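Quick illustration, no need to memorize.
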Amino acid sequence: MHLLVVFFDDEADRAIRALRRRVGAEHDLPPHLTWAAASTIGPRVRDELREDLSRLWLPDLWLHSLAATDRTLQLGAVVDGELLAVHSAVHDVLAGRVKHPAAQYLPGSWTPHCPLLTGEDDEVRAAFARLHPVTPIRAEARRVCVVDTQTGAIDPLRNASTAPR
């Protein structure tokens, strides 16, 4: 599976990692928000994404709502027009060009969030109780990457230094 993810600035990264430590969570990936997932996001599509992302302004995120769903504890992002516009633009590039896109990340179905913990229902409920209420975290989009979940390879498509502001 290939994920199209946004990694955050150092301050937000540290704050989210602290939440993860409080609930004993272990993750292969740094704190992130997933924009899309598909069985394959190929090289040509990645090049198109690089080009489109170089022209887009990436909005900051406010991660503020704690949710426990499907054996997952997650920190939800405030959904606004800017975030949805970027998400839609990304999916315009991906449409018809990736294999087996994951439906939960498609426009209209997407719930932007940062995963904190995956576990059994009891573990997730206990973690929710430990973290609630959560202090909102302002997260700046620092890197947009394609992550290969099989190999762990991370292919940067855009870094903050190339981001228009």
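The domain at 2-157 is CATH 3.90.1140.10 (Cyclic Phosphodiesterase; Chain: A,).
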